[in-house]
Amino acid sequence: MNTDRVGYSGLFVVALYGMISSFLMPLGQLREPGPGFLPLCLSTILVILAGVGVISSRPSQEDLARTEPFWGNMKSPVKIVVTTGLAIWAFEPVGFLVTSVCFLGLLFRWVSDYPWWKAVLLGVCIGGAGWFFFAKLLGVSMPGGFLGW
Questions:
Q1: Domain encompassing residue 90
Q2: What's the pLDDT score for residue 76?
Q3: Cβ–Cβ contacts within 10 Å for residue 17, how many?
Q4: Residue 74, C-beta contacts closer than 8 angstroms, at least 6 positions apart
Q5: Contact 89, 120 (CB under 8 A)
Q6: Whose CB among 27, 39, 52, 57 lies 3.0–4.6 Å from 5's, allowing a Cys bridge?
Q7: Among residues 65, 93, 113, which one ends one of the domains?
Q8: Which of 1, 47, 2 lies closest to 20, judged by CA?
């Protein structure tokens, strides 16, 4: 199995789901598009591109020489899924700022193997910048969590 073909197939399925879901929203007309118009256009383009990718992908020499399953080492993807699941679970009760700082710090340390001080520094800087941008500059109401921020 070609890894590119698997990736394009997954993208095709997600785009097809987006296309079907966009029909559940009002499409409107071309002069006055509804909320389903842009998702329909984007998912249609993505379905076409992913379909072309599935059809045109050929196995590389590495794929042909591989004897183990195509998913290979799943340690990093599993770490990312676990970390993202924890962040989703903690988003409301803990709040956006603390969750995003911890999420980014954990990703930098656990997945990317940054030194702990770089992971903490990047998590605080990027998470704080995201909170400042969305909560303060744009005025988006973010969950404050137990700290109330």
A1: 75-147
A2: 81
A3: 12
A4: none
A5: no
A6: 57
A7: 65
A8: 47
Per the structure, how many domains does the chain have?
2
| 111 and 139 belong to one structural domain | yes
Report the half-sphere exposure of 86 (CA within 13 A, side-chain side): 15
Q: Write down the pLDDT at residue 31.
A: 83
For residue 145, with 0-12 CB atoms within 10 Å meaning exposed, 13-18 middle and 19 or more buried, which class applies? middle
81 and 60 in one domain? no
**Alpha-helical runs (H) found in 23-111:** 37-56, 61-65, 75-94, 96-106
Per the structure block, which two tokens stand in for 131? Answer: 């909170």
Contacts of 39 (CB under 8 A, 6+ apart): 18, 21, 22, 25
What's the pTM? 0.55
Per-residue pLDDT of the chain (149 residues; tens, 9 = 90+): 567 788 889 999 999 999 999 888 888 888 888 888 888 999 999 999 999 998 888 776 766 676 666 556 677 888 889 999 999 999 888 989 999 999 999 999 988 999 999 999 999 999 999 999 988 888 888 887 776 66
